[in-house]
Amino acid sequence: MRAVDINERSPWQDITEGNKIYEAATSRNFCTGEWRTSTPEFDREKCKQCLLCVPVCPDSSIPVKNGARDEFDYDHCKGCGICAKVCPFGAITMREGK
Ligand code: SF4
Ligand code: SF4
After folding, report:
1. Would you say residue 27 lies in a domain?
2. pTM of the entire structure?
3. Are 93 and 46 in contact (CB under 8 A)?
4. Closest ligand (CA of 92)
5. Residue 20 lies in a domain
């Protein structure tokens, strides 16, 4: 099955039976962060780069570059708030809305 551009209308021939997913990692092709109703915000001044927030994110939306966490991947973050709960330094706060 080919990757689908969300702005493109999918012909019925491209829709799998029962909308089953046959390939891994296809979620990267979709901006599922659009479902979000609350949004994590990251305070770089408070962050101690302990990286505790990274493995708990169910959507792998906290990228790490050169051993340090980077800005959220808002294309895929669904706003569950787990990262804000685990941060021991209060560096993540949840804001209502996208
Ligand atoms: S709010 Fe949830 S989905 Fe978004 S970055 Fe935090 S843990 Fe990940
Ligand atoms: S848990 Fe908090 S302090 Fe640790 S890396 Fe994440 S935002 Fe920074």
Report:
1. no
2. 0.79
3. no
4. 2
5. no
